[in-house]
Structure prediction request, 118 residues.
Amino acid sequence: MLGEYLPILLFLFVSTGLGIVLLVLGWALGPKRPTSEKLSPYECGFEAFEDARMQFDVRYYLIAIQFIIFDLEIAFVFPWAVNFRNLGIVGLTEMGIFIGLLVLGFVYVWKKGALEWE
Prediction:
């Protein structure tokens, strides 16, 4: 029974080894020309002017969470599209309801002004 797991174990060892080898090769052979611009912290396209612990506006987090929610919900469309012919009219109806609820949630967020950035 344990012999059935040998290909999986071999795959894990080979993929881990390949990942480590590629990282080491990139580090060893890659160019190393540090400049002040490359060594400075980058955040949102502007220079850091305060402490790293400065407070961010809550709207930033709300938009990020909304993006993740809508992005993950749209990911459910891909398996449905692959299996579309086998699902028939029932699958089409269910996806129509799903997309309708997704659009309804988007319109609600839009009407509440959660996508507005002052």
Summary: DSSP finds five helices and no strands in the chain. The radius of gyration is 24 Å. The mean pLDDT is 84.
